User: Which sequence fits this backbone?
């Protein structure tokens, strides 16, 4: 894009707090607490940046409901702001708050898109029944995620699944160590990344926030912390300062290893809100136990596992540099480190952190669409990395496996923790997709609105293919037939009937569990040795009526006629189907069977134990409807964080 005869700049530069305002009040961190984020300049096919800021992905709306104040929107295209990399960091200027949430959120979105090899889409919004038009479905597309920098006057910030928005709070504190009398969560780099990650993860796997086990919300919280944690290592000056201070070691607690330090001290904690490094004096790692049920506490073990892997990789990548320099990290005084060595080691730390974060993000495409467990995540990391980098010369996968093993995270049903045992099994069914017959549009779309529309069209076509294809038709082996994780009751509808059903996505019938096509997406990734990985990924989910009484469960499962009872909870199954676009056949069917009665018993037991406790509000367990779509689980879980 050009303006007259002048070319557009390649990047838009915006200043932000590298950590939070508290770091600017301390002598040892003030010098590294201002970072400049570089975002690609808008192309001709993209919406041009408007005051707010507003672009293709985000719409910042700055209204304070408590005071009724509507703050003037910042115009990042103002020549004065363009000339000085945006507004200078300021706690007192709401326009800088808008600039910071926008810049950090867009940086996080771009990080995901580079790792996934495609655009990020937001989860669809559930439309209240009374507001649905004639023949309209229960969901509507969300083009832009709304961001409210001053939405709450309380110590909270959360992603709203109902509003499809990020709501940031602010509050008064008496803790002098916080460095301010008012704390704004919209000025915490960690909190912004954390909440944006929740929104992106919900767009990828909308059923992950449902109550299926103690791992469900814990995974959401842990993954958001993982991305926030490794985002620290994109801040070159901060990484260099820590390496210089600690003589090359990164295994001690610091700004780099903590999450939301100002928020933590302002709410009465001694330091960061959460830490990736254990505080135990005996050096023994904290282990995952069955009695860890609070999402942040349980999720912290997963975060520590991944950070352990990063530390192992960092130490391996830098060992030769320290040997050449004749330095023993953490043993010799920090002033012995040459500035060139510090810069070189910092680059290795940043590369290792970026590599581990990308391994984790790519793994999202290799997870089952429902009932995710920590062990599933380990298998997904290993499989995704193996597909892209078959030869693990540097032992990154082994480092990740060792990190999980040390914390007691072991997948179910694996022969061992050897990498080849953790890779998802190839499917039994030799399923091939004819993309021409399916009428799928697999061409990349530059315009975001076109990409969203194409994704919706592809999902509809896949819905017809799956529910109408002979490949997935029922047999007479029993009431539940399981093919690639997709299960149907007898008396399948014809493909022609299903075209009508598609126009009513909320339709409920008793012939088979309704099929949801959460997404149909293509990816293209390039490995370090030029590997070209192209895949079609289809997410399928189904709902089975769950009952707390096992006798009632069996009766309702076998019911073939009459009006069924409403379920007391939703039990879901489904599969992530990964096709190789070059060969056209199914490579993986990563599934959670809807016919798995053992898993049903586990979910029933989990819900029984938390049915009348604090998690009832968080998870929306008030009745049998799909409250997880309309409740605000993250609002409750994040309150006081």
Assistant:
């Amino acid at each position: 894009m050009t303006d007259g005869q002048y070319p557009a700049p390649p990047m838009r530069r915006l200043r932000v707090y590298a950590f939070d305002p508290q770091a600017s009040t301390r002598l040892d961190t003030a010098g590294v607490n201002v970072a400049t984020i570089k975002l690609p300049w808008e192309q001709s096919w993209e919406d041009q940046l408007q005051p707010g800021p507003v672009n293709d992905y985000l719409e910042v709306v700055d209204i304070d409901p408590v005071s009724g104040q509507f703050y003037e929107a910042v115009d990042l295209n103002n020549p004065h702001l363009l000339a000085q990399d945006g507004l200078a960091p300021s706690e007192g200027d709401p326009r800088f708050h808008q600039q910071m949430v926008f810049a950090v959120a867009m940086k996080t979105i771009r990080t995901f898109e580079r790792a996934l090899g495609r655009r990020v889409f937001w989860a669809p919004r559930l439309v209240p029944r009374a507001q649905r038009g004639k023949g309209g479905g229960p969901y509507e597309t969300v083009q832009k995620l709304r961001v409210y920098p001053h939405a709450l006057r309380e110590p909270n910030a959360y992603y709203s699944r109902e509003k499809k928005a990020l709501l940031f709070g602010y509050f008064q504190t008496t803790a002098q160590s916080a460095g301010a009398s008012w704390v704004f969560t919209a000025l915490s780099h960690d909190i912004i990344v954390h909440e944006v990650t929740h929104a992106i993860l919900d767009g990828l796997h909308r059923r992950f926030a449902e109550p299926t086990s103690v791992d469900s919300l814990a995974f959401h919280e842990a993954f958001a912390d993982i991305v926030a944690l490794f985002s620290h290592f994109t801040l070159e000056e901060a990484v260099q300062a820590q390496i210089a201070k600690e003589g090359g070691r990164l295994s001690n607690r610091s700004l780099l290893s903590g999450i939301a330090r100002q928020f933590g001290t302002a709410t009465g904690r001694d330091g960061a809100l959460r830490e990736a490094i254990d505080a135990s004096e005996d050096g023994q790692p904290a282990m995952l136990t069955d009695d860890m049920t609070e999402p942040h506490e349980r999720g912290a073990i997963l975060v520590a596992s991944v950070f352990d892997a990063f530390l192992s990789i960092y130490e391996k990548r830098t060992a030769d540099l320290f040997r050449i320099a004749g330095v023993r990290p953490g043993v010799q005084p920090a002033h012995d480190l040459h500035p060139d060595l510090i810069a070189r080691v910092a680059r290795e730390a940043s590369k290792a952190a970026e590599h581990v974060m990308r391994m984790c993000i790519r793994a999202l495409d290799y997870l089952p669409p429902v009932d995710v467990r920590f062990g599933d995540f380990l298998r997904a990391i290993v499989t995704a990395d193996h597909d892209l980098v078959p030869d693990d010369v540097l032992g990154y996968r082994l480092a990740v496996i060792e990190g999980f093993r040390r914390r007691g995270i072991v997948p179910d049903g694996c022969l061992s923790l050897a990498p080849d045992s953790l890779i998802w099994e190839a499917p039994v069914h030799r399923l091939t997709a004819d993309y021409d017959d399916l009428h799928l549009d697999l061409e990349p779309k530059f315009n975001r609105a076109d990409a969203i529309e194409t994704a919706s069209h592809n999902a509809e076509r896949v819905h017809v293919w799956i529910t109408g294809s002979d490949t997935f038709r029922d047999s007479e082996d029993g009431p539940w037939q399981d093919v690639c994780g997709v299960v149907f009751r007898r008396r399948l509808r014809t493909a022609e009937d299903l075209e009508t059903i598609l126009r009513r996505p909320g339709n409920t019938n008793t012939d088979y569990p309704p099929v949801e096509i959460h997404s149909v997406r293509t990816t293209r990734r390039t490995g370090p040795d030029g590997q070209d990985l192209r895949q079609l990924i289809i997410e399928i989910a189904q709902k089975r009526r769950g009952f707390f009484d096992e006798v009632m469960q069996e009766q309702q499962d076998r019911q073939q006629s009459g009006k069924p009872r409403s379920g007391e909870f939703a039990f879901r199954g489904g599969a992530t189907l990964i096709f190789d676009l070059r060969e056209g056949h199914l490579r993986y069917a990563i599934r959670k069977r809807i016919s798995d009665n053992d898993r049903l018993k586990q979910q029933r037991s989990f819900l029984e134990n938390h049915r009348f406790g604090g998690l009832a509000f968080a998870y929306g367990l008030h009745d049998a409807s799909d409250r997880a779509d309309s409740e605000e689980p993250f609002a409750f879980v994040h309150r006081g964080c």
User: Anything to note?
Assistant: The chain is about 35% helix and 15% strand. The chain has a mean pLDDT of 83.
